[in-house]
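In the design runs reported in the main text, the only information available to the sequence generator was the tokenized backbone. The following block is the verbatim input for one such run; it is reproduced so that readers can re-run the procedure and compare outputs position by position.
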């Protein structure tokens, strides 16, 4: 119990939430970049017209 209370006192919860948000934003940005390239290169083969289509 003392160990977990130490996390609270040292504000690790807030740093964890901020880190998770940051990783989520970076991951979504990276996925968007990769999807544009994949659809541009293999869109015809995969029958995907654009990144915004539901099939992508």
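Verbatim output:
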């Amino acid at each position: 119990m003392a160990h977990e209370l130490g996390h609270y006192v040292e504000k690790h919860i807030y740093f964890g939430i901020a880190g998770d948000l940051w990783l989520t934003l970076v991951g979504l940005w990276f996925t968007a970049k990769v999807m544009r390239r994949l659809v541009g290169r293999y869109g015809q083969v995969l029958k995907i017209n654009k990144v915004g289509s539901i099939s992508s």
